[in-house]
Design brief:
Length: 349
């Protein structure tokens, strides 16, 4: 069975949510919980962006031992040095470096030619690699980049020493089959390296059209062995793929996907609560896995079914995700079964 690594970017891409700002000690608290959740990689921040992020990244690199500790960096030596100085204390340090590759980003934002970008990738990825850390490369806006050029950027980063290749759907543009197609083609082109275990394929999906989780799962089906995601699905604009949803899709469909994660799923609810409390972003009631309605039933027919066998209306056991909440709600759709059950429960105690 394929092991899917969970790369958590709550502290970097998640913190880019409008209005969210975590201080270093809040970041450390979340990182410690992510360690309990047993994520494989924590992207701790973008150390060049501000002093607090540098300090927080360093604090986490010193105190959180089990996961890989990753810092985000532009393809610029100064950024790479600062990222390195923040996470060098980790036993498993990683630099995640990126540059936009799509035509619109090249022409309008970077004002750089394809060749200039390829030269930068080779030079800066080699530089990061020579610092002695693992290097992940992302062609930003990959899903809107001309396919052949995207492959050239990936090939150049591999030649320069990158060992993790991430395919971001930066603006959440793709349909699930479209994303599958792109990731599968990348997998096929570098299949020898991916199957030898020397190279890792990663996906990173945004939720602008509500496809982030579905796209991440099709990425896994296409050969990705790392998924980048964020607790509660927070992040820029409409957010990133929600970690708890990605994990439970994989865990409940292990056989179909022939894949599993290392996540301690019983910690999902608690992690969600901590992130919500510290980011001050409320969890919608109907949020899959961790919302207060996720395993709560009001209609009489459903209550009857749940009391007979919870599998009638639940495909996950709430205990397995550490969910704490009300099992039944009473309203105009409720029936006698849950009322009797509640009465019996009250009388029993
Ligand atoms: O969405 C994105 O493209 C990112 C990076 C992986 C560049 O956050
Ligand atoms: Zn992103």
């Amino acid at each position: 069975m394929k092991k899917i690594k969970i790369f958590d970017t709550t502290l970097r891409d998640g913190e880019q949510t409008v209005g969210v700002s975590l201080n270093p000690y809040e970041k450390l608290r979340i990182a410690k919980q992510l360690e309990k959740l047993n994520v494989d990689v924590i992207e701790v921040g973008f150390p060049i962006s501000n002093k607090e992020d540098f300090f927080a990244s360093k604090l986490i690199a010193k105190q959180v031992r089990t996961p890989t500790i990753c810092a985000f960096s532009r393809l610029i030596k100064k950024d790479i040095n600062v990222a390195y100085n923040a996470i060098k204390y980790s036993d498993k340090p990683r630099i995640h470096t990126f540059i936009a590759t799509s035509k619109i980003h090249r022409d309008k934002k970077l004002k750089k030619s394809q060749e200039e970008i390829l030269r930068m990738i080779y030079e800066e990825v080699s530089y990061a690699k020579n610092l002695g850390v693992e290097v992940e490369f992302s062609p930003e806006d990959a899903s809107r980049t001309e396919f052949d050029y995207m492959i050239q950027t990936i090939r150049t980063s591999i030649d320069a020493g990158a060992t993790i290749i991430n395919i971001p759907d930066t603006v959440g543009d793709s349909l699930p089959f479209e994303f599958y197609d792109r990731v599968k083609k990348v997998y096929d082109i570098f299949s020898d390296e991916f199957s030898s275990g020397n190279l890792e394929l990663s996906v990173h999906c945004h939720n602008d059209k509500g496809n982030a989780v579905a796209n991440s799962i099709t990425g896994v089906m296409a050969g990705a062995t790392q998924v980048e995601c964020v607790v509660n699905g927070i992040g820029e604009r409409t957010g990133n793929a929600a970690l708890e949803e990605v994990v439970m899709n994989i865990e409940t469909k292990r056989k179909y996907l022939n894949a599993e994660t290392n996540i301690c799923t019983q910690e999902l609810y608690r992690t969600s609560q901590i992130v919500s409390e510290l980011t001050k972003i409320e969890i919608p009631k109907n949020k899959p896995i961790v919302g207060s309605n996720a395993f709560c039933h009001e209609s009489g027919i459903h209550q009857h079914g749940i009391l007979a066998d919870s599998n009638t209306y639940e495909t996950m056991n709430p205990v397995n995700v550490g969910w704490v909440g009300k099992k039944f709600a009473f309203g105009k759709h409720s029936g006698k079964h849950a009322k009797e059950y509640l009465l019996y429960d009250v009388l029993k105690t």
